[in-house]
Amino acid sequence: MPECIQITEGLTDLLVPKEHSHGGPGKRTGDVFFNAQMAFNRDVSVMVIRSLEDIVDVADAMTATGARAVRIANEVPRTMVVANDLEEKSRWFIESNVALNGLSNCQTNIQNLSCLLAEKSFDYVDLDPFGSPIPFLQATIRGCRKRGVLAITATDTAPLAGAHRAKCQRRYQARPLRGPMCHESGLRILMGAIARELARFDRGMEPILSFYADHYFRSYVRVKEGAEAADDTLSKLGFYSYNQSTLERSFSPASDADHVHGPVWGGQLHNPAVLLEMHTDGLATQKRVDKSLAIWRKELPTPIFYEIGELASHLKVPSPRLEVLLEALRSNGRAEKCHVTPTSFRTDLPLQTIKDLFIQASGRKDWN
Ligand SMILES: C[S@@+](CC[C@H](N)C(=O)[O-])C[C@H]1O[C@@H](n2cnc3c(N)ncnc32)[C@H](O)[C@@H]1O
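That is the input. Now the predicted structure with S-adenosylmethionine docked in place:
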């Protein structure tokens, strides 16, 4: 028996390795992997599946201790879950966790996910790798049924957010963006890559929920069948321009001399109607999910956001409180918080109006 401890996450008891991570990106160690900080990520999976009544057959393709699979089976009893991992040493943890919760709807499977997903298909496939999901994406799409849901994590934040540009180019065949919007762009590069891979199978996608949190990106997308859906999905890809001197930024479906960052997904990050169906009862990090859900529900569909610190240093005025600024912006157009950083917002107003209202909100009336 491996050295382990028992914890409770959400409504589920779990045996996890005594030595485990409490934050940061997943790293391969000698033991079976468990990261306590990813409770939020697992909570969101439970919340999403709970809200999608047609999801029954679930594959947790990279399950490690079985934490996510066992939570889904226990907390969404209608599901039939396959808890899969490549490593034989995961078996003890998965089987013990299934037994600990008295489950009959969670099956242990030790196999390369490419084999599992070639043999069987599912309503929901979860991919939670160390680093980039790209090497596993094709297999995941093959194993996802018509109108199924893909749930994809990427922890290779540095390439996606532009710190390792060449690696982003190699993995995602996309040029990342540096600056305050780097994580927004990273999330959308990941989504763009999912969209392009789906299109190879004459499939499209409709995002349910996509976010950046802690050290990772996560996207839940509903697969749409057919060439038309694939073409429609591809039409939502595009490129960012970003001018650091003026703070001008824009999104264009085509690349040109200015729009060089991408391709990125330019469509919605979330489906507002599905988000309204979600609730946080019984989740491990309920307060945090409540707070995030409130922001996700209101986020504007634009791929552009602005950040208070960047505007303040550009305009050389003090930073107003976000709520004060939002109020000023809302008297002229639409403006809502953006989930990516706590000091960012999305709006449909032009940059000059944003700058004028920012100066007013910062209390410096003498600026021109
Ligand atoms: C980051 S961990 C998953 C953590 C887990 N989802 C959780 O919430 O605790 C990644 C896991 O993927 C497994 N893995 C790596 N390559 C795989 C493959 N080709 N097929 C199946 N599992 C694989 C690793 O053994 C490891 O346990």
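The longest helix spans residues 182-200.
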